[in-house]
Design a protein that fits this description.
elongated; DNA binding; Helix-turn-helix domain protein; DUF5753; Cro/C1-type_HTH
Length: 285
């Protein structure tokens, strides 16, 4: 497990606690916003952990909620201070999906379905570079390199010698047949995918075309789970201009059930390795 303070997770925990205090008080977010002369959207963003929260915000909210125990206030203030620290990803500059990286860094397990590409945590550097270059044709080379380096840094969680991320990936056949970077790049990528699938904490399954329609037909998503019971699971859906994070228990349950159906319809581990190997042979000709 990461030993450093993760600001993203701290914000989530703090937001959940502030929401709990508001609900105990029996107040709506609108009522709290009116008391503090701020927008309702600010209160919502503070509670869902998407916005950095200051110690002053915590103090003001605790005042509205009439929190009498100074130890509770001090604890929340410390969480606010921790949440404003920078994670390792900030060293790379502005990263559009930094919230997701923060969650992934602290996650215990990740279940991902990818319909178009090899999952980022299992990509080779050459594949990632070709993929990002194709996806962002107007991005300067420096931006491409930054994104590739961030992706490589994220992979440390998979390859960590202690407490690695438990990864389960269901990949559509189209991701294996899409020629990204040329035949040699694809060959190396598929060989790498097979090798990574042999790690005890990594499971890879392919969903072949012949399975037809399936629960993941609407697109990519990932389910992150955390070691601390206080941190609820999150469903992450990547978008072009914005991302979606679902944390309600019903939403997470629905996507989890969908994922179970995907795993049941996909090839098993041994069949998957053989299937990937057969496709890889096509890139040697």
């Amino acid at each position: 497990m990461p030993t450093n303070v993760n600001p993203t997770v701290r914000r989530r925990r703090l937001g959940q606690e502030l929401r709990r205090l508001r609900e105990i008080k029996g107040m709506t977010a609108e009522e709290v916003a009116d008391r503090l002369l701020v927008s309702q959207s600010k209160i919502s963003r503070l509670e869902n952990g998407r916005r950095s929260i200051s110690q002053r915000d915590v103090r003001d909210l605790c005042g509205v909620y009439e929190v009498a125990d100074h130890r509770v206030v001090d604890s929340l203030m410390q969480m606010a201070k921790d949440s404003r620290q920078q994670g390792w990803w900030h060293a790379f500059g502005d990263i559009p999906y930094s919230v997701y990286i923060g969650l992934e860094t602290d996650a215990e397990s990740l279940r991902v379905y990818e319909p178009q590409i090899v999952p980022g945590l299992l990509q080779t550097r050459s594949y990632a570079e070709a993929l990002i270059t194709g996806a962002l044709p107007e991005a300067p080379p420096s931006d491409i390199e930054k994104r590739v380096n961030v992706r490589a840094r994220r992979q440390d969680r998979v390859n960590a010698p202690e407490h690695p991320l438990r990864l389960w990936a269901v990949i559509d056949e189209s991701a294996l047949r899409r020629l990204v970077g040329g035949k040699q790049v694809m060959l190396a990528q598929l060989e790498h995918l097979v090798e990574q699938s042999k790690l005890p904490h990594v499971t890879v399954q392919v969903l072949p075309f012949e399975m037809g329609a399936h629960p993941g037909i609407n697109g990519q998503y990932a389910i992150l789970e955390f070691p601390d019971a206080a941190d609820s699971s999150v469903v992450y859906i990547e978008g072009v201009t914005s991302d979606l994070y679902l944390e309600k228990a019903n939403d997470v349950q629905r996507y989890s059930v969908m994922y179970e159906h995907l795993r049941a319809q996909a090839l098993n581990v041994d069949q998957t390795r053989e299937f990937i190997g057969d496709i890889a042979k096509g890139y040697t000709r």
